[in-house]
Amino acid sequence: MTLYAGKREALEDAFLGRDDEMPRGKPRSVTRDAMRRLRANKAAMTALFVFAFIVLAALVGPYLIPYDYETPDWNAFTAPPSIESGHYFGTDQNGRDLLARTLYGTRISLLVALIATAVSVVVGVLYGAVSGFAGGRIDSAMMRFVDVMYALPYILFVILLMVMFGRNVFLLFAAIGLLEWLTMARIVRGQTLSLKEKEFVEAARAAGVSSFPIILRHIVPNLVGPVVIYASLTIPEIVITESFLSYLGFGVQEPLTSLGTLISEGTGAIGAADWLLLFPGGVLVTMLLALAFIGDGLRDAFDPKDR
Amino acid sequence: MSFSFKTFTGALALSTVLALGAAHAKELVMYNGGDVTSLDPHKLSGDWEDRVEGDIFEGLFTEDAKAKPIPGVAESYETSEDGLTWTFKLRDDAKWSDGEPVTAEDFVFAFKRLMDPKTAAQYAYLQYPIKNAAAINTGKIDDLDQLGVKAVDDKTLEITLEQPVPYYPSLLTHYTAYPVPKHLIDKVGDDWVQIGTIVTDGPYKPVEWVPGSHVLTARNEYWHGGQEKLDIDGVRFLSMEDVSAGFRRYQAGEIDLMTDYPKDQFKFIQENLPGEGHFAPFAGLYYYVFNTSKPPFDDEKVREALSLAVNREVIGPKVLGSGEPAAYGWVPPGMNNYPEEGARFDWASEPYPERLEKAKALLEEAGYGPDKPLNVTLSYNTNDNHKRVAVAIAAMWKPLGVNVSLENTEVKVHYANLRQGAFEVARAGWLADFNDPVNFLDLLKSGIEMNYGQWSNEDYNQLLAEAAKTQDLDQRAGILEKAEKIALDRDAALPIYFYLSENIVSPKVKGFEDNVFDKHRTRWLSMTE
Amino acid sequence: MLIFVLKRLASTIPVVLIAITACFFILRLAPGGPFDQERALPPEVLANLRAYYHLDDSLIVQYLRYLGRLAQLDLGPSFVTKDFTVARQIAIGLPYTLILGGSAFLLAILGGIVAGIYGALYHNRSADWLIGAVAMTGLVVPNFLVAPILQLVFGVRLGWLPVGGWGDGGPRFLLLPVLVLALPHIARISRLMRGSLIETMNSNFIKTATAKGIGRRRVVLGHALRPALTPVVSYLGPAAGYLLTGSIVVEQIFGIPGIGRYFVNAALNRDYGMVLGTVIFYMALIVLLNLLVDLAYAWLDPKVRQR
Fold first, then answer.
1. B140 to chain C: closest CA residue
2. Burial (Cβ within 10 Å: 0-12, 13-18, ≥19) of residue C145
3. DSSP collapsed to 3 states, C44-95
4. Collapsing DSSP states into helix, strand and coil, what is residue C294?
5. ipTM of model
6. Do B384 and A268 touch (CB under 8 A)?
7. What is chain A's mean pLDDT, rounded?
8. Chain centroid to CA C37
9. Beta carbons of B32 and B246 less than 8 angstroms apart
10. pLDDT, tens digit, for every residue of B418-430?
């Protein structure tokens, strides 16, 4: 409830702010405007702080705790969380500190998610916008290519990549990122197809502006809404894809770990050692929820239609 | 909201109606692990397939409730003085599930089919003790009739061996020695294994098979043992990869017998399901193999140091959790024709800290130390248990100044690498096919495919060859023990623990007897409703 | 229309061919073979097996032989499940996959669209927030985590539903697996639907309609819904693909046979024929679904249809 109230207040603030600004006739920057609205969105800001905290903990945390992520504590196998022993999250089946492993796992998962999402956004938006805008033969050829990629069940891709080149975290990024852009490209293309029929694009074209500037200046900014929404959907999806691969046994190589790997190890211990699932699962869900709220906040802030 | 709730309750009501109509006979539901790949006894390889196959087929010998060989289709047998010729008298009432009699010709046909290179039977080599079998199977002899198996008459079978095999009855219980229905294969060829066509001679017959789901069996009314001896009407062998999910189904009463279990639940089972967890010694060895063809693992000192530093007492009870017994020898306890405990490492009873010191000294002698650390790649196939053992052992080696990088690959890649010698130290395991120590000792013989590390020792090979010719069982056991000792002294490989059979058995199921072969044929089981 | 469909189908043939070729060679270059196993085979036996399945010919010969057989619609034998041909096994798994995937697909579309419309209509009110929170949770919790928890709660603890298995294929057995499979897609579709409907509701033609005094319900269902469905429809193609691969986990956890499981097991077992067979099957299905999506797209947006 509080979340929803905050969101509405945020939007009202935004409206008021704009009205104040208008009469002064200052040129408005879309980004600055959006950022201001984002700052006023309490839910998104809370999510941002939570996310920043998790990132910070993943980066700095391992240096602050007494245990590392790979050395077993021979006296504590599958030990429940305890303050006295210093294993605040307990230990795993190999006697390794779960807090340390969760922090390292978060690092890996974040790295995978961020890089893969960046790849998918850049490639997907450009590809989709060009394809949709160009239309005709170019469009159909480009979409055929996407079809080729789609028609290969992608899990096979990843399995074969992992098998042929060994388990390498960077290959994981590449594989997942290069798969996710397909959907992004399709959605962007779909939007572009309708957008380019809109009056302002036709106006620009009539004024003699050439294709690529139109794409960059008129199409892409108008895609921010769907792209941000989709990217905010993509990050959790990539983390989940990574964990899906871990479940099938194609995760990162020991002693490294990821949140997905930790969770898939934890699911076997439900009822017997719940902390193995609760802590990594809690971190994952919190992180993904935070990311989703940030994504929503960005959408509300950026979407010109809401103004 | 109300919309979705209505459909939900609607679905529940409908399904209750459906469930009421589905009452059936006494069916045992078993979590059976992997997917069955074939019902043809010549085309199998897994223990989960053996569970199905052993219910639907019966060889000359079969297993009792404790997995000891007892006569099956054979009514009686005689052995010649030299131990080379075995003559079996077949039961008159042995019948295929279509009512046709099981004849000596069916066995002759089966053994020939097994050895025929065209059949490409994966496990043909288990029956190589039969005269000329190896030569035929490897294409050195073209004439199948040269095989040492002969039908004297319809009900008399004569098998000639290359050399005496004291454990031969045990070998005859294996699925490679099952008969196949000649009358049917002559008629329909390879299609004989299809459900609806297949006939079998065991207490049960397969009636349904959905790959990825289950194989279902039902009583074979022509089985010679008599229907009154069977309590269970059929078995549903479930193929499931996710053992945790299987365990949940067991908890909900959907599964009666689990042939594996999620290791993390050991304590839960002991506390909440008393008597249902059956953890018993199992004739199997879990070990690491050194690639002795590559430095530094050609150096015995390095191998010994690594072996000394493995604290085996921790692996079973703590890392795996079900208390697998530590392996200080190569042959699991409880094998026939062998002392209960064979050879052991000299240092087996030394305290761990002392062993660790010794290991450090050995590594130093071998030229490794703080300024020249030993780098080891430890390979294992993707599996939770293998991972845990590898992580623990890597941590045990660390104090020696050994840097371990772990490498896990899928099972097919792992074994391809082992076959090609593309590894340094790798995980391997062996389950006994028949009840004799040579099963394990052969793994270290020169020129054997399973000797992945290519460790080679002339004395060892000679002792094994000598044992094969020795008829006196005590004398033979002594020779084999000597061989085992050589393997341990020279650290041919690194034994870690002996397997446990791990079955979770519902209190409904009676007659389940733990045994070292983990074979529990359904004919010995019964079920209360 | 028929010509359009035929043209599209014809243009997919080279795509499928390229994909088959790529799969064939990638698979063969991956390490490990169908007969590598825990118990090594004597070289002679291995040679026998390879000869039996014609794996001893050169790759090109094998490839041409495969294509030749494929042209006669023969998918060849399975190297691992030896009693079944690839085609027969797929035929056995097909009904399970279609029932499971189809139910989940329908549930995802219906549930997602309904939830999305609700969310948009009650924009920024408690119903919206509630739906958003549920959707978010559905998105961020991986299915191999949801499935065991649902199994534990409804199967083991409450005993209301079977924990696993196909049983008689009735709704009792289907409910949990279908729900698990559909959950993330319900979430994704509802978010897309909500966002797009809010945007449409803010567009001029809807404002005009509202100004004319047409009832809110009629505005949404009669005017706004159709254009707002565009991003949802463009997501359906990929969603179908994800459902197919996502079903792997669901099939494994619930112990249900299906093509997804056949595929993963075949890839792990290097059952070349089976992998190719399932890949071809998947490609055909995905191509078909994408075609349907394109048709739906044309129906939704008249401007696209004209082109």
1. C44
2. buried
3. HHHHHHHHHCCCCCCHHHHHHHHHHHHHCCCCCECCCCCCCEHHHHHHHHHH
4. helix
5. 0.85
6. yes
7. 75
8. 31
9. no
10. 888 889 999 999 9
What's the DSSP call for residue A26?
P
**Is the CB of residue A67 less than 8 Å from the CB of residue B392?**
no
Closest Cα partner for C196 from C103, C300, C97? Answer: C300
- For β-strands B149-153 and B402-409, DSSP reports them as unpaired
Q: Which two tokens stand for residue A196?
A: 């380019």
**Residue A153 and residue A155: Cα distance in Å, rounded?**
6
Distance CA C243, CA C100 (A): 9
Q: How far is A229 from chain C (nearest CA, A)?
A: 8
Q: How many CB atoms within 10 Å of residue B239?
A: 21
What is the 3-state secondary structure of C172-192?
Answer: HHHHHHHHHHHHHHHHHHHHH
> What's phi and psi for A239, nearest 5 deg?
-60, -40
Residue C92, chain B, CB below 8 Å: the answer is yes
Task: Please spell the DSSP secondary structure of A40-74, one letter per residue.
Answer: H-HHHHHHHHHHHHHHHHHHHHHHHSS--SS---T
CA–CA separation, A55 and B456 (whole Å): 54
Q: For residue B74, give both structure tokens.
A: 């054979």
Q: Which chains touch B (3 or more CB pairs under 8 A)?
A: A, C
In terms of DSSP H, where are the helices of chain C? Answer: 2-29, 43-52, 59-71, 86-121, 126-140, 143-150, 171-201, 204-211, 216-218, 225-228, 230-254, 259-269, 272-300, 302-306
pLDDT at B115: 93
Distance (Å) from the C-alpha of residue B194 to the closest C-alpha of chain A? 30
Longest dimension (CA), chain B: 84
Q: What pTM does this model have? A: 0.84
Q: Do residues C268 and B411 lie in contact, with contact meaning Cβ atoms separated by under 8 Å?
A: yes
Res. A258 pLDDT band, cuts 50 70 90: confident
B367 Cβ contact list (under 8 Å, min separation 6): none
Place of tokens 């078909």: C288
Nearest one of B442, B175, B200, B250 to B331, comparing CA atoms: B442
Helix (H, G, I), strand (E, B) or coil at B28: strand
Suggest the residue from C7, C140, C262 to mutate for an interface test with chain A (most A CBs closer than 10 A).
C140
Token couple for B227: 């229907």
Measured CA angle at B451 (ends B446, B454), to 5 deg: 65
